[in-house]
Amino acid sequence: MSNVVNTAGWSHNRVPERAKTVYYGEYKCKGPRANPNNREPFVKQLSGAEVQPFLVLDFIEATKWLLPPPNY
């Protein structure tokens, strides 16, 4: 992440109760503002195993609305 990114990473947009139910996850963020120690308490640093469910097309039912993945 570049220096234009706030070091907190995310916010509750002035509605603090959102922090109780929101799920923000980061995976392998790099750069000057990627220090996870400065993140809001509700931001989770994901492991390789934790990020896997989010990296498949089925997570967002993408096979129903995105073009098919290329066949190489």
UniProtKB/TrEMBL annotation:
Gene Ontology terms: biological process = pectin catabolic process
- Name the domain of life: Eukaryota
Tell me the GO molecular function terms: pectinesterase activity
Q: Which Gene3D superfamilies match?
A: Single-stranded right-handed beta-helix, Pectin lyase-like (2.160.20.10)
Q: Which InterPro entries match?
A: Pectin_lyas_fold, Pectin_lyase_fold/virulence
Name of the protein in question: Pectinesterase
